[in-house]
Amino acid sequence: MNRSFPALRGLAIILVVLNHTIHMTMSYARSQGVAAVPAWQQVLFYSLSGLGIFAVPIFLYLSGAFFAYAASQDNLKTNYRIVWNNLKHVAIPYVIWSLIFYLEIYLLHDKRFTLAEYVKHLVVGYPFNFVPLLIFYYLISPLLIRAIRYTGWLVIALIGLYQLALLNIVLPGTLGFEFPAQMGVLAPPILSSTLAEWAIFFPLGLIYVKRITSLTRLIERTRWSWLGLTVLLYAIALLDVLKVIDLPLARYLAPVAFILLTSVFQRSAFPFVKQLEVLGKRAYGLYLMNLLLLDILLFAIESLLPGALTFYLLLMPLLFVLALVIPLWVIQRAERLRQPLLVRYVFG
C-alpha cells in the first residue's frame, strides 16, 4: 500500500472544506446584498474552490484501493464480509449526520420535507452526494475485483467509456454533440449524476492494488507529462467556468490525470505530512460535519453581525480554519472516551 495515501486523504478533506467555505460564505454574503465581486476575486474564488473537483475522486480512489488491499483472496463470501464491515462504518454515520443536517436546516431555515422526501434525500445523497455511490461500489466491489483479476484494464476501459456516455446523457453536449433521446435508458435512477462525474475512480483504486507494478512503472516514467496534463486540464476547466472558452469536458478529465499521478506520490514529498495524516485518519467524520458547522457559523454571523458579511474576504480564512479544527476537536475528544465502536459508528 502506498504510504502517501493517508496524507492524500487529508489533502482531500482540506479541498472539500475549502470549497464549502468559499461557496457558503459567498451565498450568505449575497443574501445580505453584497454586490457582484470584482473580476480578480471571481478568478481567485473559482481557482481555489475549483480544486474541490479533485476531492471526491481522491476519496473514491482510496476507498477502492483500501478495499482491494483488504480483499486479497478471490473468495466472494470472504470479501462480502469485508463489504459488510465497511458498509456499517459508512452508512450508519451517513444516516446519523444526514438526520442532524435535516434538523439543523429545519431549525435555522425552516426547511421541512415530507417523510417520503426525507427518504428520497437519504437515498440520493443530500447533502453528502458521493456516499450513495460509495455504498453502491462497495456492494459490487467483490465482483469488480474478480472481473479485474481476469480482464484487467478492459473493465476500467469499459467503465470509463460508460462514464463518458453517461456524462453526455446527463449533461447533453459535454462531448461536443448530443445523443438521441433513446440513449437515456442508459442513465440509472439515483446514481446517474454521480456515476457521470465519478464512475471511474473507485475501480481505479481497485486496479491500482491488483495491477500495481504495471501501473506505477508507466506513470513513473511519464510523471511530468501527467503533472503537466493535470495542470493544463484544470486551467482549461477554470477558463470554461469563467466563460472564456467552452470546453466542459476538461473538468471531468483533470481528476483522472491527477489520480493516475498519485500512484507514484511519495509520503516524504508532502509538506506537513503528519498533520495531513491526522486529518486523513478522520476525513469521513470531518466531511460529514463541516458543511453543517459552516452553516451554523454563517447563520450566527448573519443573525448577530450581518454587516460582517461584507468583509467576506476576511471571514473566509477564519471559517475555513474553524470548519477543520472544531470537527477535528470533537472527534479527538470522542476518541478519548475509549469507545472505538461508538466513534466508528458516529464518525466513520
Helicity, as a percent range: over 70%
Structural class call reads mainly alpha
Q: Gyration radius, to the nearest Å?
A: 21 Å
Helix and strand pattern = HHHHHHHHHHHHHHHH
- Gross geometry: globular
The overall number of domains is 1
Major sheet description: none
Report the sheet-strand fraction: under 5%
Total of DSSP H or I helical runs spanning 4+ residues: 16
Task: Tell me the quaternary state.
Answer: single chain
- Give the low-pLDDT segments: none
Number of strands: 0
Q: How would you state the average pLDDT, rounded?
A: 94
What is the terminal-to-terminal distance? Answer: 21 Å
What are the SSEs and their pairings?
Layout (H helix, E strand, L loop, with lengths): L4 H27 L7 H11 L5 H16 L5 H34 L5 H10 L6 H21 L1 H18 L21 H7 L2 H10 L1 H10 L1 H19 L8 H13 L10 H9 L1 H22 L7 H24 L4 H8 L1
Helix pairs in contact: 1-3, 1-13, 1-14, 1-15, 3-6, 3-9, 4-6, 4-14, 4-16, 6-7, 6-9, 7-8, 9-10, 11-12, 14-15
Short synopsis of the structure:
The protein is mainly alpha-helical.
Characteristic key phrases:
single chain, 348 residues, mainly alpha, globular
